[in-house]
Amino acid sequence: MGDPALSISIVIPTLNAGRAFGTILHRIMGQGQVPVEIVCADLGSTDGTRHIVSQFPLARFVEITEPPGPKSWNRAMEAARGDVVVFLAQNAVPGNGDWLTHLTAPFVDPSVGGVYGRQEASLESDPLSGFRLGQRFCREAHWRRIRVGDAVRYASLPFFIDNAAVRRSVWRGIHFNEHLPVGADRFWARQVVLASCTIAYAPDALIIRHLHPDLKATYHLAVLTGYTDEHFRDAGGTFWPDSRRLTKRAVWYLFRGLAWGRLPYLAIEDAVQRYGYKLGRRLDRLGPGLRERIAPETKAEELPGEISDLAA
Fold it and tell me: Which of 46, 94, 170, 271 could bridge across to 113 with cysteines, CB 3.0–4.6 Å?
């Protein structure tokens, strides 16, 4: 059980969440542990998201003017009131009635600064998306602490904000880094570990996501990851979220599951990722106009010299 002395806020960044969003709020209200509030940090919805939120007494609609990413996460943290702030993606459904209890239970240990939970794809999702999440998140709980000589690599910290909890007192000292186009959640977790705090993994804090393949989103992520690695890579290694051997493992997974029809898409996706990543590494060589069209998130700020000195 979580520490009863700690109040819990749930933050859900929303953008045209759709009718199914009401189901997610219902599932949250049915949790064994009830939060003090549900903050829907809206990024500019034009559908009925505000109306859906108004139907739930614990939920409040907060307009965030910042773009998706670390800037909006920091604004949401400022708006929330709980000692522990839980982030949940708008398309993530808690897998059971004890999701919130499992996700916040490690905060009984005062050294824990953040906790992340397991993610799985729904049965209707693309099999490759399900395989990718299965590779990222294991079924065994573990705690990540600093060790002598440990570089604390991002590959060992799949702390994704889509299903994670943050201790407010730790966040006050270490904000989400607003300079990073991608990976700010994992960068925050690494900084917390380097500050001698603990990041815990709670596999029983399961969420289910409905995922479909999207080559455009895959390409955009690859470009931003390449750009981030080029300018911000440190001893933690690459910000790429998956193993370099993922494609080879996915081929065997599809063969074994008789899903041979997905092999052409896997080959195309791999080519798109490689091209996008290389383009991101060379993005500064392009003209400002073309660069803004390809990756508008990378414009309008001077690059700092040392990533360790970045402040939110």
Answer: 170
